[in-house]
Amino acid sequence: MPYTGRFAPSPTGALHLGTARTALLAWARARAAGGRFLLRIEDLDQPRTVAGAEAAILQDLRWLGLDWDGEPVRQSERAQLYADALERLRREGRAFACSCSRREVEQSASAPHDENGVRYPGTCRQAPLHPGRPLAWRFRMDAPEPLTDLACGPYAGIQDDFVLRRAEGGFNYQMACAVDDLLQGVSEVVRGVDLLGSASRQQALHKALGAPPPLWYHVPLLEGPDGFRLSKRHGSISVAAYREAGWSPQRLGGLLAASLGWAGDGEAMQAAGWIGRVGRPLQPRRVPLDL
Ligand SMILES: [Zn+2]
User: Fold this and answer.
1) Are the C-beta atoms of 6 and 189 separated by less than 8 Å?
2) Confidence (pTM)
3) How many A from CA of 98 to the centre of ligand 1?
4) Which residues surround ligand 1, an ion (CB under 5 A)?
5) Cβ(26)–Cβ(5) under 8 Å?
6) Cα separation values, 87 from 63, 76, 159, 164, 209, Å
7) Are 250 and 270 in contact, with CB atoms under 8 Å apart?
8) Among this protein's residues, is 232 annotated catalytic?
């Protein structure tokens, strides 16, 4: 199968350093494999979508030295594809209607809670408890879905009847992401390790829809100097802020490569330089973020 990779940002704000590092990795792995690299704008969460953010993200990616194949697609324009997939899952008994509110699921004593959040306790598996209410659709997941991640190793997976479509009609992230990866022929998903639990859900969806799942490559999250996940309280963490402060893409690319153990401190590395390093293990380390 020819390699197809992708980067799928949400247009909810500026491109941050951690997301930019993931984009560089995803792009470099695709180019090293001689494959395609696609961009997908994950704008299903319309209330959180920020005007102008998509254009700014594309500008930042170009400035970093990335390119992509074809035009970016937008999830907000693909609802019919998700509806078709849901119809297939319903027909084949892999989706069931659920009347539970989010609060009812969260308050259920039998709902398992862990780092993947609250999992559905199975209330409506036989039939909706309150059939008169607006109904969500959930995926019927009968067993944990294990996987072997190329960066993280074996992962036992989780069992969760996650939401495919909410009662108010919007499609859930898991559904849209898996259907898009399937239809776009994505062969490897490179993204942050905070989505490893989603990979288990999405892999089960790929299989239910009759497709081989992609390979998974979940990368560590970029840490601030204090060891915590990089966030706004660490100061200016957007690519645009570094550019406006006079940084070159080579200098920022080198800093991000250094944070993976792929470059020395102060070493410049443009995006193309990442391509020859994709076979190396990830060795995350803290780097000075001195804006
Ligand atoms: Zn329910």
Assistant:
1) yes
2) 0.95
3) 4
4) 98, 100, 123-124
5) yes
6) 41, 19, 22, 11, 11
7) yes
8) yes
Q: What does the alpha-carbon distance between residue 222 and residue 239 come to, in Å, rounded to a whole number? A: 14
Encode the chain (291 residues) as per-residue pLDDT tens digits. 799 999 999 999 999 999 999 999 999 999 999 999 999 999 998 889 999 999 999 999 999 999 999 999 999 999 999 999 999 999 999 999 999 999 999 888 777 777 777 889 999 999 999 999 999 999 999 999 999 999 999 999 999 999 999 999 999 999 999 999 999 999 999 999 999 999 999 999 999 999 999 999 999 999 888 888 888 777 788 999 999 999 999 999 999 999 999 999 999 999 999 999 999 999 999 988 877
Closest alpha carbon to 21 in 256, 178, 193? 256
Q: How far from 174 is each of 164, 178, 180, CA to CA, in Å?
A: 7, 6, 10
- C-alpha 124 – ligand 1 centre gap (Å): 4
Of the residues 62, 232, 285, 286, only one is catalytic, namely: 232
Q: How far is the CA of 128 from the centre of ligand 1 (A)?
A: 6
Return the structure tokens found at 274: 């990442």
Query: From ligand 1's centre to the CA of 163, what distance in Å?
Result: 10
Position 288, amino acid: P
> 191 burial class (0-12, 13-18, 19+ CB within 10 angstroms)?
buried
As given in the structure block, the two tokens for residue 105 are 């699921």
CA of 232 to the centre of ligand 1 (A): 36
CA distance 5 to 119: 30
Ligand 1 geometric centre to CA of 174 (Å): 18
C-beta neighbour count of 10 within 10 angstroms: 19
